[in-house]
Amino acid sequence: MTNFANVERRHLAALLRRLGPDAPTLCEGWTTRDLAVHLVLRDGRPDVLAGRALSRVPVLRDRARRAEEAVARQPWEELVRKVEHPPLYSPARLGPLDKRMNTVEFFVHHEDARRAQPEWHDRPLLHDEEQALWQGLSLVAKVMLKDEEDTVVLIAPSYGAVRGGRGRTGTVRVLRAVPSELLLWAFGRRGQARVEETVE
């Protein structure tokens, strides 16, 4: 099977080149430049991500901020090239690891850039691509739904079902769609995800 993470990486880079650095995305407050900076840091600067996570440690926080600002100042074409081609030392260069850590990430962020544009259109995926996204969703669904007060059941016909949420209200919300749309819904892109919801 094709490495869907790598396919999405290439498609996203092509889209970023077309949109330019100032286009909106579905990530609140982020332009396409902000999205590209995030992906470059994620691939090549885990120390910066650690500095963000440990922001109460001033040395790490300040170092992370400076590094992020330096990446953000890079010319747009250079930044997009780094999104498309991670550094040689990046785990993203290893096919199996790339699939595990980047399939969901690059699909979601590709859609963040696509669906924020007024002319976006449906993009049917291949069965193998949907299967890869279903595997990713199955791994993270409980974490992504942990703050839902209701019980939430995500059903992808012919792929399976996952359940999450706290179940405190007695309400069961059932969402049906292909895996890609359920994934976007679970990751908070609820206004743009094409899902059918029923309440039981």
From TrEMBL:
Annotated InterPro entries: CHP03085 (IPR017519), DinB/YfiT-like (IPR034660), Maleyloyr_isom (IPR017517)
Protein name, per record: TIGR03085 family protein
